[in-house]
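Regression test case RT-17, inverse folding.

Input:
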């Protein structure tokens, strides 16, 4: 990809620190899958990874990081796959940043591939597609697709179109650690994920910006696709956005004001726009019951754009309410 984003976070045409895989000729790939109380989907994802074809001279090892599940997830995965994977157990739930870092610590690897436990590769060419893509770059961004479940599938597709538009202004709109391969030396040089991001959201975009500032080249791997096996519901989506507004958004906004504004979050920050926060408080009692019973999202008699627009407003209100809860 060419130069994207703001000038001080632009992606150079060639890395300044010499991480090009053309020079490194890497051979060892570690796939890192964090999981928290999600055995069934983690099992499907691991099985799909192990089925993937791996071109020579690469070798692949799967690290599953059990983030303090305490429900037998790690034991069941170990029983299912045995020595074909490595289980890294954390004594307590530390969050996604810490879990991903644990999977990448003290290992010998040329490439790190981060995949969420609920993101199943769509076919056995998944790894080969990433490896082909990253030969010309330092970060290979895969594609995340929704499962074909009606409204939420269409909603996520529409969100991807919006991210494509935003990416013309800031490349981080495309970056997600649900499905991304990164040069291991570059990842370690920037310190991995920042574990200050303990709540939901923004840890992936923070990493992307630090990688870019270290001289990384980014590319999209259209053939490296995963299916996001998450059955969404409106209450869950609103809860996560409220959590992001209350916790991690403050760190991201203070560090990267341009990206915070360009990605659209500044406009729905109740501490920056107090009158919008007041409006969110007034609207939430009306919206909240509709988030608990969201069968109406599948009403095909109501145009999709109208349903999607209402959901976007509800999600924005949830985020606004979250920002009002964070410490000033």
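Golden output:
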């Amino acid at each position: 990809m060419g130069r994207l984003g703001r000038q001080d976070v632009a992606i150079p045409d060639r890395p300044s620190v010499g991480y090009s895989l053309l020079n490194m000729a890497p051979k060892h790939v570690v796939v890192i899958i964090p999981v928290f109380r999600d055995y069934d989907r983690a099992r499907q994802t691991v099985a799909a990874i192990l089925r993937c074809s791996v071109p020579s001279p690469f070798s692949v090892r799967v690290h599953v990081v059990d983030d303090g599940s305490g429900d037998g997830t790690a034991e069941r995965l170990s029983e299912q796959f045995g020595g074909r994977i490595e289980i890294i157990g954390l004594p307590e739930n530390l969050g996604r940043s810490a879990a991903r870092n644990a999977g990448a610590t003290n290992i010998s690897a040329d490439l790190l591939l981060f995949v969420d436990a609920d993101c199943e590769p769509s076919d056995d060419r998944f790894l080969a597609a990433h490896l082909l893509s990253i030969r010309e770059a330092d970060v290979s961004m895969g594609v995340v697709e929704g499962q074909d479940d009606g409204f939420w599938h269409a909603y996520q597709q529409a969100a991807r179109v919006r991210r494509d538009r935003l990416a013309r202004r800031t490349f981080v709109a495309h970056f997600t650690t649900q499905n991304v391969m990164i040069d291991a030396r570059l990842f370690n040089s920037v310190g991995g994920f920042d574990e200050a991001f303990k709540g939901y959201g923004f840890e992936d975009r923070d990493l992307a910006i630090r990688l870019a500032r270290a001289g990384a080249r980014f590319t999209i791997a259209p053939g490296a696709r995963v299916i996001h096996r998450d059955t969404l519901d409106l209450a869950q989506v609103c809860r996560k956005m409220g959590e992001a507004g209350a916790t991690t958004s403050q760190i991201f906004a203070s560090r990267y004001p341009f990206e915070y504004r360009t990605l659209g979050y500044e406009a729905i920050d109740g501490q920056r726009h107090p009158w919008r926060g007041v409006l969110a408080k007034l609207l939430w009692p009306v919206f909240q019951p509709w988030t608990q019973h969201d069968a109406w999202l599948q009403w095909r008699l109501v145009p999709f754009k109208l349903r999607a627009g209402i959901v976007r407003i509800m999600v924005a209100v949830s985020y606004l309410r979250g920002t009002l809860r964070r410490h000033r």
